[in-house]
Structure formats: C-alpha cells, structure tokens
Amino acid sequence: MADAGMLRFHVPEPEVRPGGTPDFSNVTIPKAGSVPRPEIDVDPRTIRDMAFSIIRVLNRAGEAVGPWAGLLSDKELLEGLRHMMTLRTFDARMQMAQRQGKTSFYMQHLGEEAVSCAFRKALQPGDMNFPTYRQAGLLIADGYPMVSMMNQIYSNEADPLKGRQLPVMYSSKEHGFFSISGNLATQYIQAVGWAMASAISNDSRIAAAWIGDGSTAESDFHAALVFASTYKAPVVLNVVNNQWAISTFQGIARGGSGTFAARGLGFGIPSLRVDGNDYLAVHAVAKWAVERARANLGPTLVEYVTYRVGAHSTSDDPSAYRPKAESDAWPLGDPVIRLKNHLIHKGVWSEDRHTQAEAEILETVIAAQKEAEGHGTLHAGGKPSTRDMFEGVYAEMPPHLRRQRQQAGV
Ligand SMILES: Cc1ncc(C[n+]2csc(CCOP(=O)(O)OP(=O)(O)O)c2C)c(N)n1
Ligand SMILES: [Mg+2]
C-alpha cells in the first residue's frame, strides 16, 4: 500500500505538448464498414459497445463500404462536397477579414466541415438545430445566403441581428437554426425542451442539440440527458469531439467515461460514435438518429470524432499548447479530400473539376463579400440604428425600455 494516507490530486494530461511529436496511437480506429447498422428500434442495452467504436464508411482507397453506405446519390454527394468547400472558403475569407480589421472576431471550422454540412441533409424543413458557433455548415448546406452571414459578422446596417450578437452567432428560424448563445451548453437543455414541446403538441418536428467536447462538462449537458431520456424527447444529442476546448484537451471533460458517447449509456440512451471527417458516415448516422426521433423512439446521442485543425478563434494561438503539426498526424484525414477522392474513385469527379470548382466557389464567396461590404464593416460604412437595440426582445416593449429609448433620442 504505497502512499497510504497521502492523497494525490489527479489532473489528466495530454499525450504531448508543444515541441513534442504528435501521437494519436491511443485513438483506436476501426476499419471502415466494420460496425453493424442496427434497426432503429434496437434495444439500447444490446448496442452499448457502439459507444466505444467508430462508424466509418469511406476506406483508405476512397470506397464506400459496409452497412452504413449507399444512402446518397452521386448528385447529393457532389452537392455535399460543394457545401464543404464553400464553408472552407467562407472561413478563409472571414478569417482574413478579421485580420484586416473588418470584424472583431471569427471562428473557423477547418477539418470539421463534414459534421454540420452532412447533418443538415438528414433533417426536414421545420426541424430545429440548437447549434454552437462551429456549425455554420447547417446554414450553408440549407442555402442560407452567405451575404446575410457576412452582414452578421460585420455587424453592418444589413445585419439580421442588428449588431447585438457576437460575430458568427447567427440566427434563422426559417433555416432551423436557433440563435446561438455564447453561454456554452445552455442550448442543450433548450433543444430538449423544444423537442418535448413538439411532442406535447403532437407536432412532427424534431430538434437537434449541439455541443463541443469541452462543454459537456457543464451541468446543463447532464440535465438535458435526464429530461431527454425520461420523456423520450424527439431530439438528436450531438457531441462534436474535436479533441480540444480552446487550450484544454478532451481528456479533461471526458474524465473516466472512456468516450463522450458513453455518457449516454447511464441514461439508457442509444449512443453512437462516428467518424466526423467522413461525410457519408456522418449523414448515415444522422439519418438513423433523426428517424428514431421522428418514430417516437426517443433521443440518440452521437459523438463525432474529429479534429479542430485551426485555432479555437481569432483570439487564440494553439502553438502555445499543442504541437504545431498535430493536425497532420490526425488519423481520420481531411473531410474534403476524403469525399473528393471518393467521387474521383466513382468516376464522377476529377482533379481538374475540383480545381475549377475551387475557383468558382472563391468567386462566389468574394462576390458575396463585396455585396456585404457595401452594407458596411465593423469600422466603416453603414451601422445598425441605435433604435434597433430596443427592438426584438419583447413582443410588446415594456414602459421602461420605451422611456430609455426616448431618453436616447432615437
Ligand atoms: C459557460 C461558459 N463557460 C466558458 C466559456 C468560454 N469558452 C468559450 S469556447 C470554450 C471552449 C469550448 O470547447 P468545446 O466545447 O470543446 O467546443 P469547440 O470550441 O472545441 O468547438 C470556452 C471554455 C463560455 N463561453 N461559456
Ligand atoms: Mg472541442
């Protein structure tokens, strides 16, 4: 009994720190196609091992294999590739716009494009996402205008949110995108509540909750699981495990549970892990979970295993806490390249067409940017009116706000 009587405080440590050699040998990657696809009404107790595996469709050769393959047509896959490429280009331009002082802040999706782009295609109109700041693919893949997103980022006179939200915190009821809250994890219980309300009113719309690995440490995440499991809420509980929560590695929030998906097991919630860099796998698993929700089978917890290639935000410098080349060592590859290779393998795409598409997309994004900048940027051109600040919070403006607006002379 070494150390008897002397307590030691345990703090999980990442495998490597800056200067070290990236090491993902602890990440077990099952072969593509090896994880079975159960029926949607499966008894959750019989699929507990799925919380510790990873559902994958695309193999190294670019083939789609196994029971989760075959759901999307070539046309749909080509569209998916375009959505991911658009999001990547949009990110690069907005990142640059921040460096040019046109906005105060930006957050990229680099490496995580498949998660939100593919998920969106599994939903129906009217379903509601409760997203975080790293799911703009939900909007892009649903055809929300990029100009409106840029207007929001620039807080200009055409900003749909009138400069009241941090850049990237979009909102669009029509596109099933609930207003983003900077207070992490609050959206998880809201999603479950919205889903419960949908069931109570015998509606057919379902909700999708979104959270990052780090934010699952918030008690809101756990409270949401209690309500979702007790009331079998029609909700998909998404956890995007991109390995990092700013400078904190995922081992802190994961604790002793083994995986984030395993958090769902104690609640009796079917819990799956999926290769988040595999467009086909993300879409197939999302569809399975959405079908379960819509068939009154209750919630599903889905952990997307991915990697945050970029900095957390424009205010972050990852070289302070992880090896610079860590993203190159990430074993699940790049979502855009993997889908591109699959489509080339199928004979419906080519390197030349890809290069051409990149140029076309860049042109479209630049055109949207010019249009948005015509409405102003953070420090130049049109701004939302001061009067707007008083609007849109209450259905009827309370007297104290009316008085304040009068005092402000707007
Ligand atoms: C309640 C709350 N705590 C802390 C923060 C500060 N904060 C913003 S983003 C972030 C990291 C979140 O990491 P994760 O949930 O893994 O999401 P990711 O950024 O990796 O997508 C933190 C701690 C916050 N916004 N809200
Ligand atoms: Mg994270």
Structure write-up:
The model has no long low-confidence stretch (mean pLDDT 97). The protein has a five-stranded parallel β-sheet with strand order 1-2-3-7-6, sandwiched between helices. Strands 4-5 form a two-stranded antiparallel sheet. The N and C termini lie far apart (74 Å). Helix 1 packs across helix 2 (113-120), helix 1 (74-99) packs antiparallel against helix 10 (335-345) and helix 5 packs parallel to helix 6. It has helices at residues 74-99, 113-120, 137-140, 146-154, 186-200, 219-230, 251-254, 279-294, 326-329, 335-345, 351-374, 399-408, and strands at 128-130, 207-212, 235-241, 244-245, 248-249, 271-275, 300-305. It has 410 residues and is of the alpha/beta class. The chain binds thiamine diphosphate and magnesium ion.
What's the short story on this structure?
With 410 residues, this protein is an alpha/beta fold.
Query: pLDDT below 50 for ≥5 consecutive residues: which ranges?
Result: none
Oligomer: single chain
Shape: globular
Mean pLDDT: 97
Lateral arrangement of strands in the main beta sheet: 1-2-3-7-6
How many E-type strands?
A: 7
* Beta-strand percent range: 5-15%
Taking the alpha carbons of the first and last residues, their distance comes to: 74 Å
Order of helices and strands: HHEHHHEHEEEHEHEHHHH
- Ligand set: thiamine diphosphate, magnesium ion
Main beta-sheet strand count, sense and barrel state? 5 strands, parallel
What percent of residues adopt helix (DSSP H or I)? 25-40%
Radius of gyration: 22 Å
How many alpha or pi helices?
Answer: 12
Structural class: alpha/beta
